[in-house]
């Protein structure tokens, strides 16, 4: 299967920056989309940013502040977060979907990372 390892969360003051990274490993044949979601206490998980091929989409709340970038050669996706606000505080999850396997056996996968905490103090 496919495993995701996230890094880069932490505590930062309002207005500060953080960069999250996610690396996918396993018997990956191809990746369709890579993205970041977040879940704050008492709230549903929501999309933050997602990149499919050359197309990106962002939640309205992060447009102009966050940038998602993908390295197809390394199967990694980064989320650069600038001008952070206390309302950005959440557990951030990486999500990747695509095909795994080789030869005559290919299957779809959709994997989630374990989550990395981002806390923004006011």
Write the layout of secondary structure elements.
Blueprint: E1 2-7, E2 10-13, E3 18-26, E4 28-39, E5 46-52, E6 55-58, E7 66-71, E8 76-81, E9 90-102, E10 105-112, E11 116-121
Parallel strand pairs: 2-11
Antiparallel strand pairs: 1-3, 3-8, 4-5, 4-9, 5-6, 7-8, 9-10, 9-11
Strand content: over 45%
- Global Rg: 15 Å
Mean pLDDT: 96
One letter per element, helices H and strands E, the order comes to EEEEEEEEEEE
Separate helix tally:
0
User: What general outline do the C-alpha atoms trace?
Assistant: elongated
N- and C-termini, Cα separation: 40 Å
Structural class: mainly beta
Subunit organisation of the chains: single chain
Question: What are the segments in which pLDDT stays under 50 over at least 5 consecutive residues?
Answer: none
How many beta-strand segments?
11
Instruction: Give the helix level as a range of percent.
Output: under 10%
Described by strand count, sense and barrel closure, the largest sheet is: 7 strands, mixed
């Amino acid at each position: 299967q496919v495993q995701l390892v996230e890094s880069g969360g932490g505590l930062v003051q309002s207005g500060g920056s953080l960069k999250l990274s996610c690396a996918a490993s396993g018997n990956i044949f191809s990746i369709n989309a890579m993205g970041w979601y977040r879940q704050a206490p008492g709230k549903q998980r929501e999309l933050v940013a997602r990149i499919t091929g050359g197309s990106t989409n962002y939640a309205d709340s992060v447009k102009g502040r966050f940038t998602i970038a993908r390295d197809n050669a390394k199967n990694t996706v980064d989320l650069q977060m600038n001008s952070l606000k206390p309302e950005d505080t959440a557990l951030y999850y990486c999500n990747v979907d695509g095909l795994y396997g080789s030869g005559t056996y290919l299957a779809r996968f959709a994997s989630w990372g374990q989550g990395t905490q981002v806390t923004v103090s006011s």
